[in-house]
Amino acid sequence: MNPQFQITNSITEDLSRIDQAKGFLDATKLSEEWLGEMERRALVREAHYTTHIEGSQLTLEQAERLLQGEKLPDVDPEDERELRNWIDAFEFVKQYVVGGAPITERMVLEIHRRLVTGVRGGSASPGQYREKQNYVINNRTKKVVYTPPPANEVPGLMASLVEWMNTPSAIHPVLKSGVAQFQLVHIHPFRDGNGRTSRLLFTLCMYRAGYDFKRMFTISEFYDRDRQAFYNAIQGVRDSNMDLTGWLEYFARGLATQLVEVKERGQRVIQTDLLAQRHTLSDRQKRVIGFLFEKQTLLFSDLADAFADIPRRTLQRDLKTLVDLGLLVTSGATSSLRYSLKKPMQ
Known about the structure:
Number of helices: 14
CATH class of the largest domain: Mainly Alpha
Oligomer: single chain
Strand content: under 5%
CATH topology of the largest domain: Fic-like fold
Shape: globular
Radius of gyration: 22 Å
Largest sheet: 3 strands, antiparallel
Number of strands: 5
Structural class: mainly alpha
CATH superfamily of the largest domain: Fido-like domain
Strand order of the largest sheet: 3-5-4
Distance between the termini: 53 Å
CATH architecture of the largest domain: Orthogonal Bundle
């Protein structure tokens, strides 16, 4: 396997942004509480968006509630199983990283098995390479847009991919992960579930190379914002005689975009901690400030929903305290009172 691509100015700039975000997160001392919360939220978002790309109709809010243990009778059971399958496969990937073992075909097959058992693709031999020709169909036009390699070539192509991933090279780890993601999609080794498997393979490659960013990033959110751009970037490689440059430009831009957001979130956490120390805020008040750093402005009813574990009267007292301290400002009528961070926050 010998991937072809050029390091363009765009790729160089985005790799610089990615490495800056990595440096910030590696050097920043965030509390275990905040690290755990940010990792949890990233996990929920990635689980939601990676399955949403493949057809799940769950909203992000529903995904959040389901993974918190709520029962939602109005959701499609298959969508819920697909969400939980992704969590299970991700936990497997995490264990693989901790163990430090090399990437193997068996590991890729196990990721696929965990992802598709009992859901979309569940009837398509979970954990086994396809034995028949498959096709990539345009959902809108129903036309074939890509014919993957014949089934009898899949084992050899996957063996070559795995060997390449385990072989040290001068390629930047981020780009190597992006190439691996594309190659698995291009080989299309499974009857279904190739996209989900490829995105977890990318995550595994990043983590093993030390680019886990404290497990606080989600690449699928970027893909899902404009799915057509995502599909076009993949198809563009095939239209360019397998030159990966365009895909890697898109891929690096997406990862850089997501990591800039993670960095900004980390900076807000630091601000929250400083404010908490300066004003001797309680843990509850600190949570409210941190939440408003994310949401900017919210109705009391929104805050009450977000902090359902806090009694409403207690939450009202905390909000009044934060207003009296000059950290929050209010606007609107009593019945629709909005709370916002005071600008600038110092």
